[in-house]
Amino acid sequence: MENPVIVAIDGPSGTGKSSTSRAVAAKLGLNYLDTGAQYRAITWWMLSNGIDVNDPVAVADAAGKPVIVAGHDPAAPGITVDGTDASGPIRTQEVTAAVSAVSAVPEVRARMVELQRAAADTSPAGIVVEGRDIGTTVFPNATVKIFLTASAEARAARRSGELNGAQSVADTRAALIKRDAADSGRKTSPLAKAADAVEVDTTDLTLDQVIECIVTLVEEKRATR
Ligand SMILES: Nc1ncnc2c1ncn2[C@@H]1O[C@H](COP(=O)(O)OP(=O)(O)O)[C@@H](O)[C@H]1O
Ligand SMILES: Nc1ccn([C@@H]2O[C@H](COP(=O)(O)OP(=O)(O)O)[C@@H](O)[C@H]2O)c(=O)n1
């Protein structure tokens, strides 16, 4: 049988990773994994259990406790923490503000990477995995690696639109830039483009154009291997 296809999609917030990855997985009949949702889920658990997220030792000590299960269906991925649906709570601004600190802790990353590799092992046709370090660390031998970018203005406008104006574009832009810096500057598996990743600037592309571009790259790669 053919090896499973692994499509790694990395990039900063608001570049279109989730929307693109889900559509690409659905079109190609592959599983889907949102690794950002896993880091958000463990962050939500830390906050809910009174762990000081700015204390890396406390976070490391607790990292093995929550049971996080991410769904792989691109039409309805979902995520549970200790059996409770966490899809809503992981998207709050409180979690968004704390997630970079939690995800910088090596013990947290080791646990998540284990779950991410296990997800690929149970995806016979293959999987589209989105995050920050998928092409560099989690799947260095991925079939196709994509690094999405977009201007800070475009990303902030997209995100602010999702929050229905609850946060201004300027405040959203500042929060995104702060999180990018934390994610790119951490020691363990920072946000980075893999040397062999294809960079796609989505600033002036429609979502459909980005999806088409990635589907074509995967199909080309599949045809030649
Ligand atoms: N190419 C694009 N053009 C316009 N809007 C986009 C594009 N890609 C994504 N979006 C929108 O931007 C928002 C953020 O996209 P998302 O996929 O969640 O990004 P990420 O996962 O990288 O944070 C969503 O509302 C999505 O519909
Ligand atoms: N592979 C990954 C994915 C996410 N993350 C962390 O998780 C956070 C949330 O990721 P996300 O993909 O849900 O973020 P958004 O792009 O949705 O805003 C990021 O800011 C990183 O701190 C990570 O460290 N490594």
From TrEMBL:
ATP binds at G11, P12, S13, G14, T15, G16, K17, S18, S19. Transmembrane segments: none annotated. The keyword Isomerase does not apply. It catalyses: CMP + ATP = CDP + ADP; dCMP + ATP = dCDP + ADP. GO terms for molecular function: ATP binding; CMP kinase activity; dCMP kinase activity. Keywords: ATP-binding, Cytoplasm, Kinase, Nucleotide-binding, Transferase. Residues 7-219 form the Cytidylate kinase domain. GO terms for cellular component: cytosol. CDD domains: CMPK (cd02020). It is an enzyme of class 2 (transferase). SUPFAM superfamilies: P-loop containing nucleoside triphosphate hydrolases. InterPro entries: Cytidylate_kin, Cytidylate_kinase_dom, P-loop_NTPase. GO terms for biological process: nucleobase-containing small molecule interconversion; pyrimidine nucleotide metabolic process. It is found in: Cytoplasm. It holds the Pfam family Cytidylate_kin. Its EC number is 2.7.4.25. PANTHER family: CYTIDYLATE KINASE, CYTIDYLATE KINASE/PANTOATE-BETA-ALANINE LIGASE. Belongs to the cytidylate kinase family. Type 1 subfamily. NCBIfam families: cmk. This is Cytidylate kinase. The gene is cmk.
